[in-house]
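Hi everyone, sorry if this is the wrong subforum. Our group has a chain we'd like a structural model of before ordering constructs, and none of us has done structure prediction before. Sequence below.
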Amino acid sequence: MASLISKQLVALNCTVTARLNGAPPSVVNASSSEASSDEKKVTKRRLALLGAGALSTVLLNRSSAYAEEVPKNYRSYVDANDGYSYLYPADWRDFDFLGHDSAFKDKNVQLQSVRVAFIPTEKTDIHDLGPMDETIFNLVNNVYAAPNQIPTIYDMQERTVDGKNYWTFEYDLEAPGYGVSAFATVAIGNGRYYTLIVTANERRWSRLRNKLKVVADSFKISDMKA
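Answer:
Right subforum, don't worry. Here is the predicted structure as tokens:
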């Protein structure tokens, strides 16, 4: 895990130059040899996307007033010193996650957690990283996935809040014996590259997806407190 985190913190600060190289427009899998064996699972996941097209680009303009509402069964985490905030399930507790600035996890179930990390960058907006699909493909396949994991990307969305742009995407990381599903949201501001990742065991994902999407969509950056 430590090596993966180290790889993430280093790679996120690099200019993304990866290309999709003819990857399928609907579902992107790291290994074409796995495509046929995963076909049924991909079809099932598509049905769970609630009508959202996989790899779709959705531009959502939201006001800060909307973003700051706290729905029932959630709590708000605000870090004014580091310039970001997000929602998390009210029954989760905070914990230390190596290499991350903040983190919360389910008290009883493993792999259900949210964490936020950031690194310095000279870029001013996520669009400076390159096209959304290429950048996310590179992140999931070359940064988030460990050598023994097979990554699959299901959905990409862009939203804009108070003039700041965010990319949120859904993906799986399959390893022998277990799988992890996740949403990630990335944004750039305050001279920092922010990443929020919220995860759950793949077997529980269909029940938790909508709940955790709220967390991913709630992430917001703001001017840091002087």
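For your construct planning: The longest strand covers residues 150-161. The chain has a mean pLDDT of 77.
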